[in-house]
Amino acid sequence: MPDYHETLGKLGPVRIAIGALILVAAIVGMTALGTVDAGHRGVHMRFSAVTGRVLDEGLYYIIPLVDSVREIDVRIQKDEVKASASSSDLQTVDSTVAVNYHLDPLRVAEIFQTVGIEYDTRLIAPALQEAVKATTAGYTAEELITKRSLVRDGIKALLREKLQQHGIIIDEFNIIDFTFSASFNASIELKVTAEQEALAAQNKLAQVKFEAEQAIELARGKAQAMEVEAKALTSNPQILQLRALEMWDGVLPRVVTDGAIPFISVDTGGQ
Prior knowledge:
The protein is built from seven helices and eight strands. The protein is of the alpha+beta class and 271 residues long.
């Protein structure tokens, strides 16, 4: 009959081997499962080569030690850059612009394979610079201010056209600021001052014209009144005595010539 302890000694290595196999299987099983986070897509690779398969959010299964997955963010992102350009009238314009974009979820494998994860510096920043320069050159420095919305839409359209072919979708574009040279700012200030002075002179001229028209109307009214009064005096001389009485202060003159009192006529009833 075999010794009990001898049997246990023989089974020890077997148990160790089985345990090791179970541990390896558990590790392999754990590496075969994974998850893609929300707002991301998974680029499937086999032996580090991109297969073109794109994994959606959630749980996935791959072949351990053969396959791997690289997560790519497809949420809306923002880049803000400074760009220097020249207007059509050769003024230097420094711009600060911001763009919101996201990767096309269906093309993340292509983007990762051809560009990598540095698509913002390799694609977006150069495209922004080029779009700003090309659009700015079509406007004068003054038009960049007065037609800002048109400039913004032009840059956005050009940027969208350049990046869409690479799987990058433009969601929004904004011009944060335009900065011009000191000489241009001074010329704008002089122009605004001149326009304000011209407007003030125009308003003053309108006021003087209005006052002159009022004076003319007042003189015309007085002339008409005098004409009416002259006609009345011609037709009725007694009005002259009435005007004299209206102006009399009630004091009789101390010296009377010819025994008559001026401006006083007494009706004696024909006696």
